[in-house]
Amino acid sequence: MDHIPIKVGKNLKSIRKSRDLSLDKLAELTGVSKAMLAQVERGDSNPTISLLWKIANGLRISVTTLIAEETPQVTLVRFGELEPITEEEEGYKAYPLFPFDAKTHFEVYTVTVEPGCSHQSEPHQEGVEEFVIVTQGALDLQIGDEAYAVEQGDAVRFNADQGHIYVNRSDRPAWLQVIIRYPF
Amino acid sequence: MDHIPIKVGKNLKSIRKSRDLSLDKLAELTGVSKAMLAQVERGDSNPTISLLWKIANGLRISVTTLIAEETPQVTLVRFGELEPITEEEEGYKAYPLFPFDAKTHFEVYTVTVEPGCSHQSEPHQEGVEEFVIVTQGALDLQIGDEAYAVEQGDAVRFNADQGHIYVNRSDRPAWLQVIIRYPF
DNA sequence: AATAATCGTATATTATATTGTACAAAATAA
DNA sequence: TTATTTTGTACAATATAATATACGATTATT
Lengths: 184, 184
What we know:
- The structure is a homodimer.
- Chain A is α+β, with helices and mostly antiparallel strands.
- The first copy, chain A, folds into 2 domains: 3-67, lambda repressor-like DNA-binding domains (434 Repressor (Amino-terminal Domain), Orthogonal Bundle), CATH 1.10.260.40; 79-181, Sandwich (Jelly Rolls).
- The first copy, chain A, contains 5 helices and 11 strands; from the N terminus they run αααααβββββββββββ.
- Chain A has helices spanning 3-18, 23-30, 34-41, 49-59, 63-67; strands spanning 74-77, 85-86, 92-98, 106-113, 118-121, 129-136, 139-143, 146-150, 155-159, 164-167, 174-181.
- A 6-stranded antiparallel sheet of chain A has the order 2-3-4-11-6-9, with no helix packed on it. A 4-stranded antiparallel sheet of chain A has the order 5-10-7-8, with no helix packed on it.
- In chain A, a hairpin with a 2-residue loop joins strand 7 (139-143) and strand 8.
- Chain A is elongated, with a radius of gyration of 22 Å.
- At the A-B interface, helix 1, helix 4, helix 5, strand 1 and strand 4 of A face helix 1, helix 4, helix 5, strand 1 and strand 3 of B.
- Chains A, B: Residues 12-66 form the HTH cro/C1-type domain.
- Chains A, B: GO terms for molecular function: DNA binding; DNA-binding transcription factor activity.
């Protein structure tokens, strides 16, 4: 048996054990037969890509997690020590939590948008993506010609090579977590 | 036929064409039969993980590249539609906002930790980093032998190849944004 | 302690992945 | 133009993936 079905088996067993799931339970979650799951875990069978997909979906993980091979400081950021980036619009502030770095190729901000404030972002270079999570309040997000009402707890991912505008039409401040990912 | 073998077929054909390779040549490079390669490209067959591995190796690409899905221009995620991942600890829930993808190499969760709850995460593979932002409440984060008090608005970045424990000792729920970044 | 439920594994059966080969159409060489 | 080579597809044979079911061992319940 090739090495990769063995690796898949180890990864799967490890995940299953960490979640304290029986093969029966996993069969329920994934729609794959218990006997097949056992074979896969033991590296006795070479699963098809659809089967791995079913397993990954049932476990709410990605297929990549199942095929991943092994390859091991702590940074604590205090909000009170962050110096916000402000713009001409008084009601928009961006607190840089994690700066861009060559390894991750993304940066993370906490952003606040006061009631009535509207903030326009210029298009980034092609390939840049933004992930916006509204952790408090609500936001209207205009991306190109479309407008999206983003409620508390909701999240949006979009290509940031389009102009986009953050608008807070509510009467409470909006708090966002923003991840900006740059292409390699 | 499931959608993923169809996706694999499209990706493979696209790569092969971009390199101006015939099926015969690809069969030579990969050690997979020409007939099978044709079936895979047409989405007529559901390849095993070993077969994908052989194809990827022959082409000097990763398996992930073969299974990658295109991302839409804008993805809006509604919190109310998310199915949380729960574990044996009753008070810990992880809502998957953005799943892992071959391009970004990270996944994003909203996590809730109820008062008094303690959640242990097994060490990830080496090279995996976690970014944890506390957007509501407070958290004690134990990483290896160290403990960190993380207040609202604070954030932590750490290598997730160490065991780590989320503990909510306060009397309010803690809400976190968690980014898990996997090495390329 | 006895009984029931659960667990992972073994086995036989069915479904399908994978190969080798043949073929017709298209492309290339003479 | 004709002959040859290359290409992707069709098909049958072989190998193996995936399932349903049964089983013995272990755990949980009565």
